[in-house]
Amino acid sequence: MSRPSERYVAAIDQGTTSTRCILFDRAGRIVSLDQREHRQILPRAGWVEHDAQEIWTNTRAVCAGALATADVSTSEIAAVGITNQRETTVVWDRATGRPIHNAIVWQDTRTDALCAQLAQDGGPDRYRERTGLPLATYFSGPKVRWILDAVPGAQARAEAGELAFGTMDSWLLWNLTGSTNGGVHATDPTNASRTLLMDLDALSWDQEIAAEIGVPPAMLPEIRSSAEVYGQVREAGPLGGLPIAGILGDQQAATVGQACLAPGEAKNTYGTGNFVLLNTGTEKVVSTNGLLTTVCYRFGGAPAVYALEGSIAVTGSLVQWLRDNLGLITDAAEVETLARTVDDNGGAYFVPAFSGLFAPHWRSDARGVIVGLTRFVNRGHIARAALEATAFQTREVIEAMNADSGVTLRGLKVDGGMVGNELLMQFQADILGVPVIRPVVAETTALGAAYAAGLAVGFWSGEADVRANWAEGKRWEPVMEPAQREELYTTWGKAVSRTLNWT
Asked: Which residues are CB-contacts of 243 (< 8 A; sequence separation ≥ 6)?
């Protein structure tokens, strides 16, 4: 149980573009936040890397910053939770603590040929029954294989136990708990279920699949639950001595932060990409409509809770692309202002298949298109089409989810960076035909990690506390006529068809 002096839980949120530390109070409200961006390393088209050492440096800085901003001491903090960009892959030297290659990011497509080679025997669904996942560049296992092939001598060193693999949660946990001096090498089932290497039923590494992909078992982290004490932060760090007690992949963390703790409850996170998760309870549902079956969470010794997930690669990052690559806007927030200069998309549709299409299509051969261009189309129409692309892609996933689950969604809980965009949220409600609901605390990813850690140490007594903390901030009701909704969505489908078979 937590002590009376402990008034907060710290959450480290290691995302695709930045790392943050947020302190939450018992009501689930933000007390302080510190954030640092890291570099996006783009060696060639389709390749995306991060410097894992830079991310670790930033992690220490934001933890210190969050404490300083709130003027809080470690004695007032009950525990630390970690949430992370999930499939991003790091391989490091256990003796030196240094990565042997830049981290390969979840968006990276360099393992396309390897995935195609593995699919020759059994097709893209070769491992789906056991892992819940198709063979795709998205997942970590093939990325590990690529690093071992690319770095001279790495395969032999991995087999000898000299190298460690981890997603970002494992990398941070290992460094926080001591690195080369006793660092804990572990992960949780939500992250392990994104590697293509974990058996969804047993919640353990599948040795046969690991051997076929070529990942030595000696480099794999231990799979533990999502809410338990993994170890203590080393004393030299800004959170020194505190227990690290929660780990959840970012989308599962947002599901917990949105209090989607019962079967049939769903959320959509609008970040770099979009991720819709539907809680399916303790029974896993195998998708027949292009969704992923994944672990939603496993708290302590309780049974694992599963989810169906629709993963969309490019949503918020499309706004960044308009800013950084085209110079159409100078700040991400400007996209709504620009889009509001027109009444509709002017007939233009933007399908941002920059890294192929994820759910429900799973087409790595697709590439981005803007279609329907005429002399009438201007900057405002392009901005509006970019925002609408996020809503259209979300509807594709929701329809697949309804078909797989047999349950029709009655409302969508939303969170993430783009939910402040009022135009997008209204269009999302219109194109779905159901209410879109934003909570008071939109930082649900970090909050979910805080809940996992706080539940593990008794800071919160149970799931009822999580539900009680959730509060509706704003709701958008659909106002579009059904005929217009279907006409727009049908035309979107035509646009998607133009992206296929490009590579």
From this structure: 79, 80, 229, 231, 232, 233, 453, 457
